[in-house]
Design brief:
Helix content: 25-40%
Order of helices and strands: HHEEEEEEEEEHEEH
Membrane topology: Single-pass type II membrane protein
Distance between the termini: 39 Å
GO biological process, one term: signal peptide processing
Largest sheet: 7 strands, antiparallel
Keywords: Hydrolase, Membrane, Protease, Transmembrane, Transmembrane helix
Shape: rod-shaped
Number of helices: 4
Active site: 79, 124
Strand order of the largest sheet: 1-2-11-3-4-9-10
Enzyme class: hydrolase
Strand content: 15-25%
CATH superfamily of the largest domain: Umud Fragment, subunit A
Length: 263
């Protein structure tokens, strides 16, 4: 009996009336219907944002990777011509003196020579290392450990005569010269100080010159491209949101959507 009475009361309960702004009963307000074009534009703006963020991140990553192992300098003098002419951009792989090999062009601090240099560094070629017996004749020809040194990198033309040098390079030191022997302030002239053998310490080496093609590629342009893609995506998204608000206002005025302050 109690169950039958409850059922009878339930049967007499008045059904909930829909709100005036609803077209047919539903348990929650209808969302703003989106058109295909609206969905497409949202996808476009989100795509631009994502593409911009990825592009900028890749650009920054390439720059960080390059700067962690490499640097670029401008050769200021003719002392290394014809290998590097004045104004040439030189790619330097940043390594210590222990990695230096015969014949490599190195960037080193000139603190051992007490000379200011350009930015405190010089660019020269390694001719001899610790333990090597080096002889430079008065006509400029070079012998290394008893054999003539083959130097295809020298600037063409006769070598200027100079004081002969006969030295055994101390361990941990390097004897360096420029490729333009007639116009290079290098180890040859530092031996004339009397208190120096003209060599430099391996610890002064800051890096070796390498082919630019062997260095990681930098993409600074990607950073700006990514930045503008993010700006475009954000601006487009803001415009899309503004248009959605205007459309919601029109639907509210037409009675399709409830006023913002209604539950």
């Amino acid at each position: 009996m109690p169950a039958q009475a409850a059922g009878a009361r339930a049967g007499k309960r008045k059904a909930a009336e829909p709100f005036p702004w609803q077209h047919g009963w539903q348990p929650y307000p209808r969302r703003i219907p989106r058109t295909g074009a609206s969905r497409l534009m949202i996808a476009v703006w989100l795509g631009l944002l994502a593409a911009g963020a990825v592009t900028a991140a890749l650009g920054v990553g390439s720059i960080i990777r390059y700067r962690s192992d490499y640097r670029t300098i401008d050769q200021s003098s003719a002392s290394m011509s014809p290998t590097y002419w004045p104004g040439a951009e030189v790619t330097i792989r940043q390594v210590g003196g222990s990695a230096v090999r015969d014949g490599q062009v190195i960037l080193f601090s000139v603190r051992d020579w007490g000379a200011p240099g350009i930015g405190g560094t010089y660019l020269k070629r390694v001719i001899a290392q610790g333990g090597d017996h080096l002889v430079i004749h008065s006509d400029g020809t070079v012998e290394l450990n008893g054999s003539p040194l083959h130097e295809p990198y020298l600037r063409p033309g006769p070598l200027a005569p100079g004081a002969p040098i006969d030295i055994t390079v101390p361990e941990g030191r390097l004897f360096v010269m420029g490729d333009n022997r007639n116009n290079s302030n290098d180890s040859r002239y530092r031996t004339q100080n009397g208190d120096s053998d003209g060599t430099i310490a391996r610890s002064t080496v800051e890096g070796v010159a390498v082919d630019p093609a062997s260095a990681p590629v930098r993409h600074p342009g990607w950073v700006m491209t990514g930045f503008w893609l993010v700006i475009a995506g954000g601006a487009g998204g803001a415009i899309n949101a503004s248009r959605a608000k205007l459309r919601a206002a029109r639907l509210t005025a037409a009675g399709v959507l409830p006023p913002p302050d209604e539950d």
